[in-house]
Task: inverse folding
């Protein structure tokens, strides 16, 4: 007959159990970090104003402002556009592209897609958010707000929501439909 004792675990058993708990905690933290980086939104705070833009993304027209890209295919013309943007937005723009696919919004991708462009704001002396690689324009071939007419029908509410759902600021707020930027207050 075996005798049961209420003895404490040996030091080896204690250290093995402790190492197992530490290992599981580290694994959990790695998963949390990977998920945050994959979503992009949790890993990067959208800047407000030029000072935060430059502290987050660097000076205008820097080499990192066009280090990432995707290809947009316009369903109405068959053209493809290489849309360049700042590498720090990879996860966030990746989410937009993912939700466009699963939501069936790729049929709303029409002619005229642009991203990074080392330029000033239209009719201005300040740098455009495009110069920082944090703005993307889409479906712009028929958009001419500066001429007094906008074609809002090109963008469905759901398609706009794919961008704003990833915290892009909608250019419709300042009469630039089809423009989405990862910054406010500028």
Result:
């Amino acid at each position: 007959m075996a005798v049961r004792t209420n003895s404490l675990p040996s030091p080896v058993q204690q250290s093995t159990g402790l190492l197992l708990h530490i290992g599981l905690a580290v694994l959990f933290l790695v998963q949390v970090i990977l998920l945050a980086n994959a979503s992009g939104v949790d890993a990067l705070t959208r800047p407000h104003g030029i000072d935060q833009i430059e502290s987050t993304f660097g000076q205008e027209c820097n080499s990192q402002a066009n280090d990432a890209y995707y290809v947009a295919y316009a369903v109405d013309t068959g053209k493809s556009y290489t849309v360049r943007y700042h590498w720090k937005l990879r996860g966030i723009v990746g989410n937009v592209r993912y939700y466009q696919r699963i939501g069936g919004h790729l049929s709303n991708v029409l002619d005229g897609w642009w991203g990074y462009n080392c330029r000033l704001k239209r009719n201005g002396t300040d740098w455009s958010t495009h110069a920082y690689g944090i703005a993307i324009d889409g479906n712009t071939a028929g958009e001419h707000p500066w001429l007094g007419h906008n074609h809002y029908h090109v963008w469905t509410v759901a398609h706009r929501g794919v961008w704003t759902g990833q915290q892009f600021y909608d250019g419709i707020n300042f009469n630039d439909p089809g423009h989405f930027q990862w910054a406010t207050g500028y």
